[in-house]
Design a protein that fits this description.
Elements lengths: L17 H17 L4 H21 L4 H9 L1 H9 L7 H14 L4 H18 L5 H25 L5 H12 L3
Helix pairs in contact: 1-5, 1-7, 2-6, 6-7
Length: 175
């Protein structure tokens, strides 16, 4: 990738240049890679995670089956996530994260809620600056799948309304 100043794609209507989407994804990933956990966060990671999981279940009991399904795979997901420590290449990082999400069918929305609650717990236990470690994961949980989706649509020159209309039609069949 070159060091060209990226055009703003967030908030811009319609299709975007695929290269700009890729630059944006790389910037988001690089931001996440630059955030390192503090000693306090590392020491309290298990407690922070357990508290966030309990809060997620408390706030979203209607999603308890999905949350518990992910929680049962949590050790495997965490082990795969630990392998990301030290990764510097945005492409390698994106590949690993999206592989984790697809291997375990992690819902980015549920993961985003969970990571945001981890951030809140980190603030309680360690301080405000430690929240960023989890908030960048919240950002990635929503940004990567959304921008991958957008990249695919724009790369294939598909109308952005096509998948929306498809979803609406499929939702009508569930009634």
């Amino acid at each position: 990738m070159d060091n060209q100043t990226p055009n703003l794609i967030v908030g811009a209507p319609g299709a975007a240049d695929v290269k700009e989407i890729v630059r944006y994804i790389a910037r988001i990933i690089t931001t996440a890679l630059d955030v390192k956990p503090s000693d306090c966060l590392l020491k309290n990671y298990g407690t922070i995670t357990l508290n966030a999981l309990q809060q997620t279940l408390k706030l979203f009991p209607e999603l308890s089956a999905e949350i518990n399904a992910l929680a049962s795979k949590f050790t495997q997901i965490q082990e795969a996530s630990r392998k990301l420590v030290g990764v510097k290449d945005p492409g390698q990082y994106a590949d690993a994260v999206l592989t984790i999400f697809t291997t375990y069918n992690v819902d980015p929305g549920i993961y985003g809620i969970f990571a945001a609650l981890q951030a809140m717990e980190a603030v309680k236990m360690c301080g405000e600056s430690d929240a960023k470690f989890f908030l960048v994961r919240t950002l990635l949980a929503s940004s990567l799948p959304n921008n991958l989706y957008r990249l695919l649509l724009d790369y294939l020159s598909l109308d952005h309304n096509f998948p929306i209309n498809l979803l609406k039609a499929l939702l009508e069949t569930t009634h």
